[in-house]
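Lab notebook page, bench 4
Experiment: in silico fold of construct C2
Operator: M.H.
Input chain length: 449 residues
Purpose: comparison with the prior construct
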Amino acid sequence: MNLKELISISSKGIEIKDLNAIKNIMDTLIYEAVFSEGEKKNNLLILIKEIAKAAGAIPASIQTLYEEMGKNYPGFTVPAMNIRGLTYDTARVIFKKALEMKVGAFIFEIARSEIGYTKQRPLEYSTVVLAAAVREGYKGPVFIQGDHFQLVRKNYLADSRPEIEYVKGLIKEAIEAEFYNIDIDTSTIVDLDKPTIKEQQRPNFERTAEMAEYIRGIQPAGIDISIGGEIGEIGKKNSNPDELRAYLDGFKETFKGGKGLSKLSVQTGTSHGGVVLPDGSLAQVKIDFETLRILSDLARREYGLSGCVQHGASTLPEDAFHMFPETGTSEVHLATGFQNIMYDSTALPKEFREEVYNFIKTEYAKDKKEGQTEEQFIYSTRKKGFGPLKKKWWDLPHDVKEPIMKELSDKFELLFNKLKVTNTTEIVNNTVKPIIVRKDFNAELTGLL
């Protein structure tokens, strides 16, 4: 069926004539967009994103929900999920499960580093997520987040200005792609050689304030982007109340741009991807939940934030997740656990897994650290097997993907239950009123019909 028969484009935007038919062609439409190139790719992605908004899946900021959390913690922890591969299929599973369990409080996110190695620029990532929402009939606010928009320490120390400008460019690209939630991570430039905690945190809070002012200056009219800060670089020493106060007080004194931060990422004992043992298995992680409780309570009580954010949690044992709502954690970031399900599923053909691993061994041999076993190297590097081989992942047959998606579906169900985000559709709809940002249609876009 011709797309021209299903939608019309006017100065008011897109009007959908047959939503069911749109749902039925979305698999084909998003595939063509992702694997087209240049201007055609961009135009197709924009067209699909506008179709999604017209269908009721609207990119939104979680700011107003987090403001409510800051006044009265509602007893749930928002999962923020980084999807590195099989993104469309996985997002469909998430939306399907969210509809089934009445989950409204959940975030799709992608980090600065992931944008590179998964080959998912912000426009592609947001559009693929929104296409999945349309396919599953999901309507309402969709929270899409830039995770770890980070200053790389060695780049910053070599020459700070180009590194700052690079991250600002990424922020601009993400906002244009309708990421209305952005986590700024300048914890990498904390200067522990300084004599006081305030001076140690100064580079962190000053650069966060600069980035936050930039965001406030370019955000669309009527939208307050939710901005997160970070005090403890993940994988380093645990955060404490003195650091939290030094950072947030310093930010408050420095920032001059309207609404400030909505949340704060802290370190409590995790590392991204987990700690890999020589045989490729994961070491047992112990989170300092008491620190998380103290810091979340402090962030809410004294600063009005939603609470604290936990990174690097997806590889925790399943019986640990219930602790996040119990300690008042506002948000938890989850990534590697989903990747592990994809790679380790018995449904993934052995030949395909070996093809990816051989690619990694060849292309990323220089990434192997001294003393690493091959199992440790593969585990820590296989995240880089998604981007260059993206089309091969997308082209996996249905009978391979279906059981993998079932495993992921079970994982999302467990997480939604443990994090207590079931039946949160009502609180999200009551606190978040998404605004549709109209995008101009050029002649090429209209010509795609």
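Observations: The chain has a mean pLDDT of 93. The radius of gyration is 21 Å.
Next step: discuss at group meeting.
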